[in-house]
Design goal:
By secondary structure, the protein is α+β, with helices and mostly antiparallel strands. Strand 8 (188-191) and strand 9 form a beta hairpin. It is globular. The strands form 6 sheets. The protein has an 8-stranded antiparallel beta sheet. Strands 2-3-1-4-5-11-6 form a 7-stranded mixed beta sheet, sandwiched between helices. The protein has a 7-stranded antiparallel beta sheet with strand order 18-17-22-14-15-21-19, with no helix packed on it. The chain has 14 helices and 30 strands. Helix 2 (33-48) packs across helix 10 (269-279). Mean pLDDT is 85; it is low at 46-79 and 351-359. The structure holds guanosine-5'-diphosphate (GDP). Residues 27, 29-35, 149-150, 152-153, 262-264 line the site of guanosine-5'-diphosphate.
Length: 536
């Protein structure tokens, strides 16, 4: 860590990058992501103000600080990143929006993190949205830590949850802690690395960091009896089945450290923070389009992973969120937009939602900066300072799940229509799919989440002065057509067609899995590839 002699001779960006842990929580709605986020910040705040004793008032302070920040900035705190200090480290927690606003942005956030925490509800295990997000982590080789939440409530057995990881997603669990007391009777955890029993003490509603008491095995046996004996037995079973911790396998994203906890009671949260600090990957040099690594020490560079456009026409605000890849960012510096080659002034930059004012004007590799009114910036753009020029690969497109044909409400505005659709496609607001059969006048818009359509229709009307009509298409299964020569097979189906995306991908769309399977049975040579996150 920073104060260690090993970092003493390093440059500022290297030193600061070494302190950063930039991650996202991937979870299904209701698994407890907001609760965990708050618990992490609460815990970190207590620790970073060592010596200060926080009672309930301290907690209220934390929560209301956030709300004040939300109000002052007029934007949800969960819309981008939360930064806080933990000991000597700086934690950047990037949000992956869930619920109704699940969209391509949700996936793109994962291009800006160095690791992910997969949050599971102990009673539910792997759920659909978690699986979708995990797929992206797998494609991008993002190391994943698993936190099994809500252990204070009745749920599944711990071993069963671990088996599910292997069987459904091929990820070897490496539990670092093991629960003592079945779900619903959570006493604490067996510490598989440090040894012994860590007993958690409840504080009122998790208002402060949970108290922890460490007991050796003998004392744990004497006090917890059967619950301890069972935990020891199960932990032995894990050791026998390849569940020993191996950091190389974590980094290779083939195995996942597992922790058990209850975010609402702040149980297990310290372990998670410590794990992030001790083991999670720190920022590493990003590879540019020419295959060269941009050293962390090089002049400032960053890439835009999300652009948020205000829905209110009175405030045509647009914030571009960029992850710093190298060097030091100083507010006000003039950088170059690699896509256009044009200079870009960074006077209006927010260090997004940082808790500490001192970090507002400077940012380092791993941090997220929010560029306000950056209408010239697009998702995937690279910004850099000085020379040489650098450009990072654009962000991949993801498998869309919603499709709609767009048409101008007023046929006399077809020029504006074409321009607007092209622009929204280029910005990555929606994917634009075309085919000779449908023609340019009726493009198919495709999205990961339906909210992308709302943004697109709103902007077509407000910005391009061309209200549009969307007719939804009932396709639910999509694959990439491996061989363009086979296009006619899919186009010949009653409930299927092929559309071409701007990146050249030929997407085969089917009404449902059944229609796809039937076509494959009838055409055994038809080659359809799964589509998640294309390599860039
Ligand atoms: P999100 O949708 O993933 O952000 O989930 P929330 O953080 O809003 O949590 C969903 C519900 O689960 C809320 O009612 C929380 O109070 C509850 N919850 C979260 N963590 C825990 C936990 O550790 N134990 C229990 N019993 N409930 C929890």
């Amino acid at each position: 860590m920073t104060s260690s002699p090993a970092s003493a001779g390093l440059s500022e960006p290297m030193r600061e990058a070494g302190r950063r842990r930039t991650f996202a929580v991937i979870s299904h709605p209701d698994a407890g992501k907001s609760t965990l986020t708050e618990a992490l910040a609460l815990h970190a705040k207590v620790i970073s103000e060592a010596g200060a004793v926080h009672g309930k008032a301290g907690r209220r302070g934390t929560v209301s600080d956030w709300m004040e920040m939300e109000k002052a900035r007029g934007i949800s705190i969960t819309s981008a990143a939360l930064q806080f200090a933990y000991g000597d480290s700086v934690i950047n927690l990037l949000d992956t929006p869930g619920h109704a606003d699940f969209s391509e942005d949700t996936y793109r956030v994962l291009s800006a993190v160095d690791s992910a925490v997969m949050l599971l509800d102990a009673a539910k295990g792997l759920e659909p949205q978690t699986l979708k997000l995990f797929d992206v982590c797998r494609h991008r080789d993002i190391p994943v830590i698993t936190f099994i939440n809500k252990w204070d409530r009745p749920g599944r057995e711990a071993l069963q949850l671990c088996d599910e990881l292997v069987e459904r997603i091929g990820l070897q669990p490496m539990p670092l802690t093991w629960p003592v007391g079945e779900a619903g009777h959570f006493r604490g955890v067996l510490d598989r690395i440090g040894g012994g029993f860590i007993r958690y003490g409840r504080t009122s509603g998790g208002a402060t960091a949970a108290t922890e008491q460490r007991l050796d095995a003998g004392a744990a046996q004497a006090e917890e009896g059967d619950a301890w004996a069972q935990a020891v037995e199960e932990a032995d079973l894990l050791s026998a089945s390849g569940g020993e911790f191996d950091v190389a396998r974590f980094f290779a994203a083939t195995a996942t450290p597992v922790l058990f906890g209850a975010a609402v009671l702040n149980f297990g949260v310290r372990h998670l923070l410590d794990l992030l600090v001790d083991l999670a990957p720190r920022p590493t040099p990003r590879v540019d389009v020419d295959g060269r690594s941009r050293h962390l020490d090089a002049p400032f560079s960053a890439f835009v992973f999300k652009v948020q456009t205000g829905m209110d026409p009175a405030h045509r605000d647009q914030i571009a969120f960029a992850r710093v890849c190298s060097g030091v960012f100083d507010r006000g510096m003039v950088v170059t937009n690699a896509t256009t080659g044009k200079p870009f002034a960074t006077k209006y930059v927010q260090q997004v939602f940082g808790q500490q004012r001192s970090t507002v004007d400077r940012a380092f590799p791993g941090d997220v900066i929010g560029l306000v009114n950056a209408t010239a910036l697009r998702v995937g753009d690279t910004l850099y300072a000085g020379k040489p020029a650098v450009r990072f690969p654009g962000l991949p497109s993801f498998a869309p799940a919603h499709f709609a044909v767009a048409r101008p409400a007023d046929l006399g505005r077809s020029k504006q229509f074409r321009k607007g659709v092209e622009q929204l496609g280029a910005e990555g607001v929606v994917q634009v799919l075309l085919s000779d059969l449908r023609g340019d006048a009726a493009p198919v818009l495709a999205a990961v989440g339906p909210m992308q359509f709302e943004v697109a229709t709103h902007r077509m009307g407000a910005e391009f002065n061309c209200p549009v009509r969307l007719d939804h298409l009932d396709y639910t299964a999509v694959r990439r057509l491996a061989d363009p020569a086979q296009r006619s097979i899919v186009d010949g189906g009653r409930r299927s067609e092929v559309l071409t995306r701007a990146d050249g991908a030929e997407l085969a769309l089917f009404a449902d899995d059944m229609a796809m399977r039937v076509m494959q049975r009838q055409n055994p040579d038809l080659r359809l590839d799964p589509l998640v996150a294309e390599a860039v």
